[in-house]
Design brief:
The complex is a heterodimer. Chain A is α+β, with helices and mostly antiparallel strands. Chain A has six helices and nine strands. Chain A starts with 5 loop residues before the first helix and ends with a strand. By secondary structure, chain B is an all-alpha fold. Chain B has eleven helices and no strands. In chain B, α3 packs across α5 (about 85-105) and α10 (about 165-170) packs across α11 (about 175-195). The chains are: A alpha+beta, B mainly alpha. At the A-B interface, α1, α3 and α4 of A face α1, α3, α4, α5 and α7 of B.
């Protein structure tokens, strides 16, 4: 594709929005759009205009169980009755206690190995999603998955270091549950050393095919030096 | 060919202002705003999803995905990014098209012509814009200039989520002909809009 040919950009954008651009070409175009403002602009132009083709669409009320399912997936607490709050507090308190004890045991068993940097990736609502720990001395990256939001089926979350000068550097696909430990390459370690933030993007299964984020950046979190 | 500001130049309708405020509150993690937004736009998004996916259970799942996306991406969206309904409708349609890739390669699900033809004429007869759609006289005018075939193909693609091949089967026209109807339809639309 030639990004500079406005006629071609426009034709592809129109067919993309219309939905007739399919298969690998559609996915290539999506990536192109993500990285190219003028392509994105042509898409928005067509999105706004072609919407009128659907003028005759008659609204259909979705079934009642859909909204509670969305709320659940996003961990939104809509029902703020006192009993529920009390229950959540009790649960939170016991979790803190358990986490505290576990933490204590963990540190006791590993007195000399502490993360050199950490990052907590949290939802807007405040719920922790991943805890990232960088062990600079042993070249390891440990990620604990907590409560994951739902993500598009068949996609993976990918973690990125955001060095102050230069492009994001992939730190690999994030676990959806449990804890993952992996060795850091020299490039990843250098990128982390000059990063004060990490980011998470949505990528095709297995991670970005290009080595750079191709999907939406869904989280950015500070990376804090520790220890 | 660069008048991309044409549509954005139109000031937002009252309904759009409301959607923009709600999206702003979603960006600030106010879940009551998402609920209100859901009440306002889920029926039209669900209509679009069921039309494209043709399976209710799948459309329900897709609707969940769409609102999860809206919630997560509300922060990226701002008034300058375009019109809120176009943004949300696109999230829904692209999600449905994505799902089609995995779900609808089953011969039994080839769209049936009579149902579709019966479902389409409403677009011509309806004069006034529905509440969710910002009125655009220019658009109406330009769509009116397309040939019936071009317009029908655009509807089959945009509303029904049909591919070139689906449309060729549906209309009984050769694939190349369908592609050129669509291409020319889009071209004339653009020429008219930007004239």
């Amino acid at each position: 594709m030639k990004p500079d040919n406005p006629e071609l950009v426009d034709r592809l954008a129109a067919e993309y929005v219309l939905g007739t651009l399919r298969g690998p070409a559609r996915r290539r175009f999506e990536r192109w759009r993500t990285n190219t403002p003028h392509v994105d602009q042509r898409c928005r132009y067509w999105e706004e205009h072609l919407m009128h083709v659907a003028k005759g669409l008659n609204p259909v009320q979705p079934p009642a169980h859909v909204w509670p399912a969305i709320r659940k997936r996003l961990n939104l607490t809509a029902d703020r009755s006192p009993r529920r709050w009390a229950r959540s507090w009790a649960l939170a308190a016991s979790l803190v206690l358990v986490a505290g004890l576990a933490g204590l045991l963990y540190w006791r068993s590993l007195p000399s190995v502490r993360p050199t940097a950490t990052s907590t990736i949290a939802a807007k609502s405040g719920g922790e999603i991943w805890q990232v720990e960088v062990f600079g001395t042993t070249n390891r990256l440990v990620v604990h998955a907590a409560k994951l939001p739902a993500h598009p089926a068949g996609r993976d979350y990918e973690l990125w270091a955001l060095p102050k000068n230069g492009n994001p550097v992939s730190l690999g696909v994030l676990p959806t549950e449990g804890t993952s430990t992996r060795a850091l390459t020299a490039i990843q370690k250098a990128a982390l050393a000059s990063s004060s933030q990490v980011a998470v993007s949505i990528e095709p299964p297995g991670g970005s095919p290009t080595g750079q984020p191709t999907g939406d950046i869904v989280f950015v979190a500070p990376l804090r030096a520790s220890g | 060919m660069n008048p991309i500001t044409e549509s954005s130049a139109e000031s937002p309708t009252e309904f759009e202002e409301q959607l923009l405020r709600l999206l702003g509150r979603c960006a600030a993690a106010d879940s009551s705003a998402l609920q209100r937004l859901y009440e306002l736009v889920s029926p039209i998004l669900f209509a679009s999803l069921t039309r494209i996916l043709r399976r209710r259970a799948l459309a329900e799942e897709a609707l969940q995905d769409v609102f999860v996306s809206i919630w997560q991406r509300a922060g990226q969206f701002s008034a300058t990014r375009g019109r809120p309904m176009a943004w949300m409708m696109s999230i829904a349609r692209y999600r449905a098209i994505d799902l089609l890739r995995h779900e609808r390669h089953v011969p039994a699900l080839i769209p049936d012509l009579p149902e579709r033809l019966a479902a389409q004429p409403e677009t011509e007869s309806e004069e006034r814009s529905p509440a969710w759609l910002p009125p655009s006289g220019l658009l109406e005018h330009c769509l009116g200039l397309l040939t019936e075939r071009q317009k029908h193909c655009l509807e089959l693609a945009f509303v029904g989520g049909n591919s070139h091949e689906d449309i060729s089967r549906l209309t009984g026209s050769p694939l190349g002909t369908v592609k050129s109807w669509i291409r020319r339809g889009l071209q004339s639309l653009r020429q008219c809009l930007e004239a």
